[in-house]
Write a structure and sequence with these properties.
Layout: E1 2-9, E2 12-17, E3 21-27, H1 29-33, E4 43-50, E5 55-61, H2 65-89, H3 108-130
Parallel strand pairs: 3-5
Antiparallel strand pairs: 1-2, 1-4, 2-3, 4-5
């Protein structure tokens, strides 16, 4: 019978089996021998000792990693493909001829604009000093 561990306290594991409810189980010696510790959320196979009291033993961990890894790799490859297409659409080419940071220099027009801004600030400041309550 297979189920999912929903709680683990002091060596006892509570396993939810879809067809018949929650069983209180202990891990068999094979877990200690292989130095494995079942965790909450693991799919496990249990051996029912007493159906009336809902007790049993954990026999083995189900191979639950494969269903988790396949979607992970699929999404990683999909993201890599999307990134490659975006780079190609923007005509990105690595290596020689790669774009560099363009250093900006102040030109004559920049200095004129700065002078106009300073003059406007001076006019505003002077008007506040001449007409303080306005």
């Amino acid at each position: 019978m297979q189920g999912k561990i929903i709680k683990g306290i002091a060596g006892f594991y509570y396993v939810d089996v879809a067809e018949s409810g929650i069983y209180e189980c202990k891990a068999k010696g094979i877990f200690r021998k292989e130095k494995k510790k079942p965790l909450v959320g693991d799919n496990v196979e249990i051996e029912v000792l007493d159906e009336k009291e809902k007790t049993g033993n954990l026999i083995q961990k189900a191979k639950a990693m494969v269903p988790l890894l396949v979607p992970l790799f699929i999404s990683a490859f999909r993201r890599a493909t999307d990134l490659a297409m975006a780079m190609e659409a923007r005509c990105y080419r690595g290596g020689d001829g790669r774009t560099r940071l363009k250093v900006l220099r102040c030109t004559r027009q920049d200095y004129i604009d700065l002078a106009v801004c300073i003059a406007c600030f001076a006019v505003i400041l002077a008007s506040r000093l001449v007409f303080p309550n306005f």
